[in-house]
Amino acid sequence: MNLLAMFDQDLVASVLRSLIPILLAALGGMICERVGIFNIGLEGILLIGTFTGVAVSYGTHSWILGSLAAMVAGMLFSMILGYGAVYRKGDPIVLAVAMNILAVGMTSFLLLAIFHVQGVFKDPKIDGIPTWRIPGLADIPGIGPLFSLTPIGYLALLLVPVLWVVLFRTPVGLRLRGVGERPLAAATLGVNPQRYQLLAVLASGALAGLGGAQLALGNVVQFTENMSAGRGWIAVVVVMLARAHPVGVLGAALLFGFADAIGFRLQSFGLPQQLTDAGPYIVTLIVLILMSRRFKQARTAQLA
């Protein structure tokens, strides 16, 4: 297998599978960022979404109920950040770190308590999310996989232009951005900053929880301990890299999705799995270093 042979239609499909959970979590983080709350709890919310989606899908034999339950669980879990940071004025970084740690312990405990297994839970009763192929379009060479996604995959891609319109072309978006940029000025105009911040945190939890459902029921039909595996942290970097812009979030998420997908292909060249699995996180570190340098240069220019 030569290097060019890696870049085929199967790679496009793999990139899209890796992209969707990160994109949904990053869009949620973007909404939080717009109202002035830096949400690094996406990792924990993703993990809660994966477990809840699998558990409810297993119990009800319905991927729809599993996905909806994952969204609700993500919203409820994000209330820790919403109540603590918005109403109790706690440090959102400390709260979010605690959420991430809590999610790991809680899902591991519930996995053993409910299903009496450790590590991996896989069962034929779990109803996975189906793939919806658009006839004709799904057969187009190169871009065919774009028209052969799960319903959540289509929704995630559709949310990018929808959120762009909401943020930059509607009064609601203007209020959201006003709360994040000038909360006191927004309050003088009759906007309740706390209400908008809480709603943004809840929306973030719903999207990240839905990303967890896609990861556990769409990409694979199972739950494994610590299944989010750093994707929530990558989503945080995506938000930073994109400067909380929907189109930029999609582009940055594509970068990390490609890094994740290409890692599997590089294993055919004899590279160790541990090295290829580290691909997205190596890209994350490089991006953070480049961003740090850019911010330092901008700060130096301002002081000059």
Automatic annotation (TrEMBL):
Compartment(s) where it occurs, according to its Swiss-Prot or TrEMBL record: Cell membrane
Leader sequence segment: none
Ranges that cross the membrane: 12-31, 37-56, 63-87, 93-115, 146-167, 233-258, 278-295
Keyword check for NADP: no
Keyword Lyase assigned: no
CDD domains in the cross-refs: TM_PBP1_transp_TpRbsC_like (cd06580)
Annotated keywords: Cell membrane, Membrane, Transmembrane, Transmembrane helix
Protein name listed in UniProt: ABC transporter permease
Source species of the chain: Leucobacter iarius
